[in-house]
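Thread: quick sanity check before group meeting

JM: Hey all, I'm pulling together slides for Thursday and realized we never actually wrote out the predicted structure for the chain we discussed last week. Dropping the sequence here so it's in one place. If anyone has concerns about the input, flag it before I start.
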Amino acid sequence: MTAPSPHLIVEEGPDKGRSFVVPATGARIGRSSNNDVSLSDPSLSRFHCRVYFKPDGSLWLSDLGSTNATLLNGKPAQDEPLHTGDQIEIGQTRIRVVADHLMPESTMAPRVDLGLAGSSEEREDSFQNRRTLWPMILILGAGGMLLLLFALFLLLRQPSRPSPIRSNSSASLPSTPFDLLYEKEEGSSTNLFRYVLEIQNDCLSVKAEDAVGNRRITREKKLPPDVTTGLARDLVHMGFFELEAEYQGLPPENRWSLLDFSMSHGGRSHRVRILNRPEPEPIKTIRETLETFAEQELGLAALSLPPERLLALARDSHLLGLKLFEERAVRTDNLYQSLRAFQSCLWYLETIEPKPDFYDEALTTADRVRQTLDREYRDALFEVDKAVNQRDWENAAKELRRILIMIPDRSDERHQQAERRLLEVERRLRRQP
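JM (edit): ok, ran it. Output follows.
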């Protein structure tokens, strides 16, 4: 089979001269061996950028939140189309685009011949050993079999040699007990939503971007080592290393989806990709665990959700808040639940620009609900103080119980204060004849 023409050629950098064919599933580029294209440039991020095909077959480039950015024709790139002749600059490496469309399937060569598989050291050494033995066979012929067997014995006894790319790329990197990269893409011919979560050296970073909504958010946080250790332990217990490496399906017309997980922990590395198919239940659990972890640690409103979903959730919360506020006399806790609904609405809209038409109303009504709740709390507290002053312990206990229902959050200082006072009032009630 004729080798296909490459999509990318490295023109400058430690890997100058290498060329790559991008498979239909796309290719991730960086210095980590868990990438499809592993480069030895030490100035690259572990997972630097990604090239992929849209449904129309066009080639695109996405930065993966790299430290030193990804440049396309000299300008910073986030998610950009690629054209023949374009120059991609990452670290000290410059890559030229020589083909900008998906190759026909019949012309695709095996990935092992393209340098895209991120091969392990053992496979690289095995390949080198085989390449060394064949000339010996041709030279020695049948009469040299004994010498050949002896040479093979010596080769097998040699310790595994790290590949040049692996040794160069990792020389300046500290070893870490837990590394993770999770990418999610949901795309169509008109939009692309991307979410990237990375943990390295106990540092959590999350990046989300939406092409149509022009939403680009990046957050980072240094985590306590025991927090990342706990997350790694949870993922291992969920069976991450036992998952299959690839799950593929057929995308709906003009749409695609991708989930891509890479994790290294305890001397083990594994990568799992789900392309254009519903996620299996174990992977869904892992994905939700990671997204919830990031939201809790970074305090951001559902970065993992596309904007249309956030808008729908915000609108539902807004309507619920209005309903509960109108029915505040029906249940004692309706005011509190109304405020919670408006807070959720504003939380969902935190990363949405421009804000929807109901945003200002949600802000105004949330403030009105908060003031009403504070007023009712002060009124109830006044009744408690009056009853205590009159030693009317029955009414004091009644009003304190109403406060506990009015503000059900046990972490709220008002709830805690009412609970402490209720214990004292009930003690006095028990002492009454």
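AS: nice. DSSP finds ten helices and 18 strands in the chain. The longest helix spans residues 359-389.
JM: adding both to the slides.
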